[in-house]
Every structure is written in C-alpha cells, then in structure tokens.
Write a structure and sequence with these properties.
This protein is α/β, with parallel strands linked by helices. The protein is built from 17 helices and eleven strands. The strands form three sheets. Strands 1, 2, 3, 4, 5, 6 and 9 form a seven-stranded parallel β-sheet that branches.
C-alpha cells in the first residue's frame, strides 16, 4: 500500500495601507510606487457615485498614466460600474470585469485598480481573484467604511441566494491607498455610516480609541476632517493588525471577532432590501449585542450606557424596524441571522460580546427571549434618548483621549 504524501507549506502575503491626498495629481507618486516593474498594464474600475461626484476623475487617471507611462500603461478607459449593494447582488458586473480582463490583455502581472465604496471593492476584488486565478489588485476606497474597514481586509465577495457575501474569496490586495479627498464628496449618511466600524474595533481592542470617538462625536458629526482622518487611520491600523496577528486571517475556524454586531446587521440589510447602509446596520447590531452583554450581566451599566450615548451623540440610530419584523410563524426574521451567520462560518455558533470596553468574549448560545428584551430596550431608548455622562466624567474622558 502506498504511503500518503503530506507536505506543509506557508504562503507569505505583504501589503501596505497608504494614506494620501489628491492621489491623481501627477506629482503624487503613491500609486506609481506600488506598481512592481515597468510598463505594467493597468485596468481601472470606478464606482458610478464616485465618478458622478468627481467628474474629472477619468481624465485625471488618463493624464496620470500618461505622465507615468514608464511604469503603467492604461489598458482601457476607466470602466464605470454601479456603487452600493446593488453591484454585489448579481454576477453581472463580475462578468463585465472578467470580459474586460479578457478583451484588454490583463494578465497575472497586470493590475486592476478599483476605486469606490466597500461594496464595489468587494465585487471588483472577487472578479480580480477569479480571473486567471488571481490578478494583482490595488484598492482605492472612497468611503469612510471602505477606508477604515472593508477596503483594508483580505476578503472579496458578492451576495447570492438572498445571503450576504455567499460567494467570495480570500485574496489580499497588493496595496490599499486611502485618499482622504474622496471623503469630502460623501453625503452625510455615508460620512457617518463608516464610524460604526471604528466603534466596533475600538470596543474590542482599544478603550482609549473608543474614548477618542466618544469625545469627538460632535466634531465627527459636523464633518471635521481632522478627527475623521485619525479615526480612519487608527481603525485601519487595528484592523490590519488583527488580520496579521490573530492566527486565522482566512477564517478557517468558527470565530470571526471583527464581525462583532454583524449577525443582526447582515440580516437587517437584507430585510430592508439594502435600503439600510451597511454601517448603519452595524451600528444597530452593535447596540443590540452590547445591550445583550449588559442584560446577561457581562458588561456593567456605565459602559453599556456610554456606548449607546456615543451613538446618540453621533446622531446614529440604534434601532431599526427590521428588528421587529415577524415571519409567518410569528418569530422575528432577524433571528434567522444567527443561523445564517453560523452557516457562513461553519462549526458551532460563535458570537462576540463584551465584558468591558476593549475586552471581547465569545459565546456559543444566544437566549432569544433576552435578545427580544434588548430589542425593546433599544426601541424605547431611540424614542427617549438619554444623556448619562456627567460633566466630571466628560472632562476626565477628554483628558485621557487627548493622550491618544
């Protein structure tokens, strides 16, 4: 009998997350510098909303490539595709990019440069990862959510069978380039929606970062770019640190800590027909799981109230009517998100909760009766928001945050 052949091997991945302003000014070499080699073919794909708000973008890309033609050759005029979740709800746009790869001679030594929000980056990354078994991808996120979270990860996906991210790959980009100028064109909803992902990672990993967000909530709401740039930077730093050091970057296990609050968020998005932005759904999902942590005696009342007050100061909702939608059996639709979340990862149900700000803990069972009580609490809080941080506490928090 022949003996089994078994070999272990490792693949090293390395990519940078870069920060800049006015990326396509010809004297800005940030993009040029991440191109490996000379005269590489480059295919650009642009989110339609980004194109609408930046009408000179395509011309700027053409001029940039001409100026740096020793490094990059523009394979075709930038391809514009829809932004938002609609671009992920079908394989249509994946096929558009795959056809462009075929038609314009894009090979494994070429580059796809995707410019847009998190949903479009997910779709373009899936196309890049599956054409020729993987084409080099450069992500240029244009939303807060994209720059601080979705765009800096290693996942790519589209939706299928009514489920979020059902089809996808793990394929890191060559580089992620955050141009803060793109944030200036966002509407207020998209400006604020990405803050929830920063709150998520702060609640899990960095109490001082959470205090910073709490103290600067009004500034963020008023679109002050200085705290927003730090929020994006610190969130991206914590996110990439987690990917590099937690030991499971491709999610082979049943634990996914950075999806704190997401089991409900993904289901709410689907129930709303994706009218709810991802970041808005995450805010509600976080509020729900933080409240559950409090109700189960894991999190103290002061910390629980502080989290809800932070969302209140930011002007973000902590309740959505989708939480109370019932199926034909009289059960809440949103609770199906727990099963779908488990199916997506495989293994046992693993949900992240809080034992303290900066201290997450995994549980493997959720009491639906208690979770229903939490929904009622959030509904009431939304109707009658409370302010619970005293002047003395606020001064202390401000002093600590300024040390960050």
């Amino acid at each position: 009998m022949l003996k089994p052949i078994q070999r272990d091997f490792q693949v090293r991945f390395s990519y940078a997350t870069l920060f800049t302003h006015n990326l396509f000014a010809v004297d800005n070499t940030t993009l040029r510098d991440v191109i490996d080699g000379e005269e590489k073919r480059v295919l650009f794909v642009v989110d339609s909303e980004v194109a609408r708000h930046n009408p000179r973008l395509s011309a700027d890309i053409v001029r940039y490539c001409q100026h740096h033609k020793d490094k990059m050759q523009l394979a075709h005029a930038p391809i514009v595709v829809p932004g938002g979740e609609q671009v992920k709800n079908t394989e249509k746009y994946v096929d558009v990019l795959r056809k462009a790869v075929n038609d314009h001679g894009i090979d494994r030594h070429s580059y796809i440069v995707a410019i847009g929000g998190g949903a479009m980056l997910d779709m373009a990354g899936f196309a890049a990862a599956t054409a020729h078994r993987g084409i080099r991808l450069i992500r240029i996120p244009t939303t807060v959510l994209g720059q601080n979270d979705a765009g800096v990860g290693v996942k790519n996906s589209i939706n299928a069978f009514g489920k979020k991210n059902f089809l996808g790959t793990f394929a890191p980009a060559v580089a992620v380039i955050n141009d803060f100028n793109f944030l200036e064109t966002l509407d207020d909803r998209d400006w604020m929606a990405g803050v929830s992902e920063a709150i998520k990672v702060a609640l899990l990993k960095d109490p001082k970062f959470f205090d910073y967000i709490h103290v600067h909530a009004e500034d963020l709401k008023q679109r002050d770019m200085t705290p927003m740039e730090w929020l994006v930077y610190r969130c991206a730093e914590l996110h990439t640190e987690h990917i590099a050091t937690n030991g499971d970057p491709f999610e082979m296990g049943s634990s996914r800590p950075l999806d704190f609050g997401h089991w409900a968020a993904h289901k709410m998005e689907q129930l709303s027909g994706y009218e709810i932005r991802h970041g808005e759904a995450v805010a509600v999902g976080l509020a729900l799981d933080v409240t559950y942590s409090y109700k189960r005696g894991m999190l103290d009342e002061a910390a629980w109230r502080k989290v809800l007050e932070t969302f209140q100061k930011l002007g973000m909702s902590i309740y959505a009517e989708e939480l109370d939608m019932l199926n034909e059996d009289g059960q809440r639709h949103v609770f199906a998100g727990l099963k779908e979340f488990q199916e997506h990862l495989g293994g046992e149900l693993t949900i992240m909760l809080l034992e303290g700000i900066g201290k997450g803990v995994e549980v493997h069972h959720i009491d639906l009766d208690v979770m229903a009580e939490c929904i009622a609490v959030l509904k009431e809080w939304e109707r009658t928001p409370q302010s619970v941080i005293s002047t003395v506490e606020a001064a202390t928090i401000t002093a600590e945050a300024e040390k960050v």
